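Hey,
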Amino acid sequence: MGKFAYPPVQAVPAFSNTFPHIFGTRKNVPCLIPAAIDQDPYFRMTRDIAQKLKYMKPASIYSTFFPALQGLKHKMSSSNPISGIFLTDKPADIKNKVNKYAFSGGGATIEEHKANGANLDVDVPYQWLRFYLEDDDKLAQIAADYGSGKMMTGEIKKILIEVLQQFVKDFQERRAKIDDKTVEHFMSTRKIEAMPKAFLEAKADAEPSVPKKEEKNVQVPSGQKERTFIMIKPDGVQRGLIGKIVQRFEKKGFKMAAMKICQPGKAHLEQHYADLKKKPFFPGLIEYMNSGPVCCMVWEGDNAVLTGRKMLGATKPFDSAPGTIRGDFCIDVGRNICHGSDSVDSANNEIKLWFNDSEVMSYKHHSAPQIYE
């Protein structure tokens, strides 16, 4: 009987009045269902009956299956302890499982691997790092090095082990703090806000603060608006995108305070990327950035730093929305065209690094009254 009743159990959460404590009696709230492809029949059925019941048809978005340690043709299962990493595993368990069972797309011999590189499409350590590794630049460098044969299988497994050990450790520490009261609250029927308070607070903490007009940033001269540093990388310069990128900032209403094309050398680039110096991809990053000229710019305007980052788009072009620079002009994360300051402090430091004081202009823009109140 449980199996017989399961399709409606899957279907009813797609209709908003299933949750009167959240949506009241509304039946017109659209529903997007994230699911794996094996759940597709249930939601096709839901769409078929929705119109007859006078509900809005739900939409589905499908995710890919996470591969088992043994490879893409295998499936993770709690009954098979070597098929995956469990959240109860100890650091030694994680190390042993990855080293012993994680399927490698590398060559059968060192010579073959160095000659042909790894097949990233089937390599489990790389596929898992695509999900667990937060640093997109590091992932791109791993793909380049491992795919070309410069990085060995043992090296990428070591990186994955460290990432997973930290992930599981953090989870276990958070889980240890959960008590019965927390579980009871989580399972209770209650009003859930569209934007939870904790989320809004975390979002506010993560975003760079913008000084109010009456509280001028001490590093910004009186009467001057916020400045940000934007750099078009060698790929953007070589592809002739400087004009199009400049046009976007001008159309937005920002004022250009400085601009120059240069190729400053490795020492200067190493100083710019000093916070990444301990990363394994650092040498490759510097080599690429030094492969051709870059175009450095200073743009000025209200909320210039945060708005500039939004105009560039996400680090991964695939995640960048259409209309952003990366969303429109690039495909690969290793060739994502632009760099933009991520905070007011970093903008000030980067501007000082790339420009002399005499190179950064302060002037009144004739269109300012049409841009600002």
